[in-house]
Amino acid sequence: MGTVARVVVVTPDEENAHHAIEQAFATIKHLESLMSDRDPNSQLSYVNQHAFAEPVRVDDAVFEVLIASLEYSRLSEGAFDITIGPLVQLWRTEQSSGIAPSAAAVARAKELVGWQNLILDPSQKTVRFAQEGMKLDLGAIAKGYAVDKALEDLWQLEMSGAMVDIGGNLRCYGKAPRGSRHWRIGLQDPRKDENTVLTLTMDDVAVATSGDYRRFALVDGKSFSHIINPSTAQSAQALSSVTIIAPTAMQADALSTAITVLEEQKGLQLVNAIKGVESILIKEGVFIMSKNADKYIIRRSHNN
Ligand code: AMP
Ligand code: MG
């Protein structure tokens, strides 16, 4: 998934802890082998190569993520779109050269993007593309899904508490480590990696952060976020960091990407309309919070 994963468990027995952690990593690796778009042997890569020619049957986990993705496309009116693949690939290729792609190349790739052209058949669990050249990219949702599944393993293995973090998508439950009453996580400064701007307290909840500081490219000396607005084909840069707190990690992951594209006004509207979901946005160093985000914040660093 192109990032780092971290698993923490709380349990009285060290051997059980190691076994559980191994199981959680095995689940994460398995899901990566299905959903990675960089691995040419993944199921997703197979779909990308064949789903225009014929319907492709996929694993239940992949189908579940695809169904959820279309749901987030509808909810966000297309701001979230896993058919963004051709545009992401274009920016990725150009990233190494440091030169922006031509307007014509961007326009051609944009033509291939559109979640309405992704056809899912729930009875057969098949995927089909209505347009040739379409490419799926699950980079905005698969990490969250994997966090949820790994955490489910730990729950089934009866850990008293656990936390799974894949590249800033994290979820925890139960007992916190070292006698703490609650799990705590620090939100990084979008501009300075080592600074924590906020400390959140979280129990049985998920948090995800999308921000232009984690992965960005320098193109023509200007920084570009890795999140693309499907309607303009340009990178979404208005918000420097979007943190979503939600019941599941998949929800937090997908929504953090969607809100980055929607920006603060429409983004907050969407967040405030979904029960149990809160957001903390940072725009030019200023915090913008959803209605009840406050209840998760236990400390704000003084220089903010
Ligand atoms: P995240 O870090 O969760 O915000 O996901 C960002 C990744 O999602 C990018 O690296 C792309 O692979 C992919 N992506 C970019 N723009 C979008 C979009 N508008 N909708 C869905 N996925 C996207
Ligand atoms: Mg995301």
Overview of this protein structure:
The protein is α+β, with helices and mostly antiparallel strands. 36% of the residues lie in helices and 26% in strands. It is built from seven helices and 17 strands. It has helices at residues 14-35, 43-50, 60-75, 85-97, 103-111, 142-156, 249-273, and strands at residues 5-10, 56-57, 118-121, 126-129, 161-166, 169-174, 183-188, 196-202, 205-211, 216-219, 222-225, 228-229, 234-235, 241-246, 278-283, 286-289, 297-300. The strands form five sheets. It has a seven-stranded antiparallel β-sheet with strand order 1-5-6-9-14-15-16, covered by helices on one side. Strands 2-4-3 form a three-stranded antiparallel β-sheet, with helices on one face. A three-stranded antiparallel β-sheet has the order 7-8-17, with no helix packed on it. Strand 10 and strand 11 form a beta hairpin. Helix 3 (60-75) packs parallel to helix 7 (249-273). It is globular. It starts with a strand and ends with a strand.
